[in-house]
Write a structure and sequence with these properties.
binds magnesium ion, elongated, binds adenosine-5'-triphosphate, single chain, alpha/beta, seven-stranded mixed beta sheet, Ribosomal Protein L25, Chain P, 27 strands
Length: 580
């Protein structure tokens, strides 16, 4: 993973630079439109947006893009952004999702004040609008089966066919629709459709469904309703009811815009928002479809919506991503009119950039190898002074105990080192970060298996970090912990959840799940200062990356860390710095 990661990283960095160069380019097309609208005093210069999630799953990084856009635009133009739950499908929605969405929007740093709305609160109004259409001869009750309706719709190249029920009289339509509402009919027996044009070039305009019967309990409205409005009908009207000026949505809805406008025109509403489409976010090695994410959760492929491998806001939070990093990422990818796939390394870049500034540095040994310092007095403990964050001088220092028996990383020792292995090997010297230079003098192996058991070293007392003679140069610097003072921890390392760059292209995305996306290390040793850590705290483990104390699985006396991201360069950079 190391090499590849590094490569991705520099790619991400390049694209970052490229973006910066383009920064002089105009504001994105949405902001350009809004600026023009304000100039023209459209909507009396008012700007009102909304973020309209369906409470049928947890929010993901794609939603974060939409949140940043909608709330961002509102605040830039001194307007408002509503949080509206688009809860018109009782079979998939729940209060759990509502609560998680609210938590996630707040966590991302946005606020809707008292403007929290639900499409379900407009059900009566929507019903009245539908009746109005019927009364004006613009909607009818169709009694074809769902399958027949699909067949009658035609294709992109062939016009559709009119339903035999299209000619129903207005009175009959009214009474049937009232009957639908009253629960007189079975699911699927009737639907309400707009009477538009079965030959329209735009398939969405071929008498689209407005209402369907669903005898299902709604998480907010219970069994008050057994008919539910379709998205295209509900969405434009909810926007209008709320006085939205700019209804921003993703490109899939481009063909729906004609219908959005049709409903509002026919109903002659006071507020007619403008729908503007932008490209959805796609991320490499990632799935951003709620349906598929739900499949991962329900199939037990991940531990839940907040599994740190999930692209959900709750997963990213648990992993250690910060709201600032996510917002910076969203700002940088910008708003485009054409779909593309963004390199996930770019997101990781922003996470690193942010954590580099604020994460305290500590030492943790993931795969411990015992090291005995033969010439260090038994029972002696020295408190070594360590800078908490070289990027943030205000972060202060802490003490790290040094003693005769230590742990270093197994991979930092090679009995038979390759060329340019600047770590520890028999006869070679390295610096222990914040401590002394040590030299390996003996290797102890298990007599039967030949496995390495421990190594013996000597230390040079003249080389204590920070002392006058400490400047003696050696090529490598290792992190370490004191065996007697360190604490045990579980550490989880993550890799992409999918092995394919575009898992959406796969016939069955489950087949390209990465079997190595989670690696659990259960005998890690971390420095004693981490006793004070609280869940959600994020640290840089020197040379190993950024790690977040897992808020779910950690408990008193049992530390579980999630690796947020690896370091840009696991090796050379620290080496350079510490030899200064
Ligand atoms: P579905 O409609 O399949 O349930 P969804 O991801 O579109 O899933 P919504 O709850 O409709 O979920 O999304 C809320 C808002 O977030 C919508 O305005 C939608 O356009 C936007 N959104 C969803 N996915 C993305 C994405 N990948 N990039 C940008 N915006 C997105
Ligand atoms: Mg959607």
């Amino acid at each position: 993973m190391g090499e590849e990661n590094r490569e991705n990283f520099s790619k991400a960095e390049e694209s970052e630079k490229e973006q910066k160069n383009n920064e002089l380019a105009a504001a994105d097309f949405i902001r350009t439109i809004i600026t023009e609208d304000i100039k023209a005093n459209k909507n009396n210069g008012r700007v009102a947006t909304r973020f309209p999630p369906k409470p049928n799953g947890y929010l993901h990084i794609g939603h974060a893009k939409s949140i940043c856009l909608n709330f961002g635009v509102a605040s830039e133009y001194k307007g408002t952004c509503n949080l509206r739950f688009d809860d018109t499908n009782p079979t998939t929605e729940s209060l759990e999702y509502v609560e998680s969405i609210k938590q996630d929007v707040h966590w991302l740093g946005f606020d809707w004040d008292d403007r929290q709305y639900y499409a379900s609160d407009y059900f009566e109004k929507l019903y009245q609008y539908a009746l109005q259409l019927i009364k004006e001869g613009k909607a009818y009750v169709d009694s074809l089966s769902e399958e027949e309706i699909r067949k009658y719709r035609g294709t992109v190249t062939e016009p559709g066919q009119e339903s035999p029920y299209r000619k129903r009289f207005i009175e009959e339509n009214i009474s049937l629709f009232e009957g639908m509402r009253a629960g007189k009919f079975e699911d699927g027996s009737h639907v309400l459709r707009a009477k538009i044009d079965m030959a329209s070039a735009n398939m969405k305009m071929r008498d689209p469904l407005i209402y369907r019967i669903r005898h299902a309990e709604h998480y907010r409205k219970g069994t008050d309703w057994c008919i539910y409005p379709m998205y295209d009908f509900a969405h434009c009207l909810c926007d209008s009811i709320e006085g939205i000026t700019h209804s921003l949505c993703t490109l899939e809805f481009e063909n729906n815009r004609e219908l959005y406008d049709w409903f509002l025109d026919q109903l002659n509403v006071e507020c007619h928002p403008q729908q503007i489409e932008f490209a959805r976010l796609n991320l490499s090695y990632t799935i951003l479809s709620k349906r598929k994410l739900l499949e991962l959760v329900e199939g037990g492929y991940v531990s839940g919506w907040d599994d740190p491998r999930m692209p959900t806001v709750s997963g990213m939070r648990r992993r250690g991503f910060t709201p600032e990093a996510i917002r910076n990422f969203c700002e940088r990818i910008g708003i485009a009119k054409r779909d593309s796939i963004v390199d996930i390394a770019l997101l990781e870049y922003y996470v690193r950039e942010e954590l580099n500034k604020r994460a305290p540095r500590v030492m943790a040994v993931l795969r411990p190898l015992r090291v005995i310092i033969d010439n260090y007095p038994e029972g002696q403990v020295e408190e070594m002074e360590a800078l908490n964050n070289p990027e943030d001088t205000g972060a202060g220092t802490r003490k790290i105990p040094f003693s005769r028996v230590l742990y270093i990383e197994q991979e930092d020792f090679r009995e038979d080192p390759p060329k340019k292995f600047f770590r520890l090997a028999p006869g070679s010297e390295v610096r222990l970060k914040h401590a002394y230079i040590i030299k390996c003098v003996q290797v102890v192996k298990n007599e039967n298996t030949g496995d390495l058991v421990e190594i013996h070293c000597t230390y040079d007392p003249e080389t204590k970090s920070g002392s006058a003679s400490a400047g003696r140069r050696v090529k490598g610097t290792l992190h370490w912990v004191s065996a007697d003072h360190s604490i045990k921890a579980d550490i989880r390392l993550y890799d992409h959840l999918f092995t394919k760059e575009n898992p959406n292209e796969e016939e069955d995305f489950i087949t390209c799940l990465n079997p190595n996306s989670l690696q659990r290390l259960t005998s890690c040793q971390v420095e004693p200062s981490l006793k004070e850590a609280t869940p959600g705290n994020i640290f840089q483990f020197l040379r190993q990356g950024y790690f977040c104390l897992d808020p779910v699985d950690s408990s008193e006396g049992s530390l579980v860390f999630n690796r947020t991201v690896s370091l840009r360069d696991t090796w050379a950079k620290i080496e350079k710095k510490s030899n200064k």
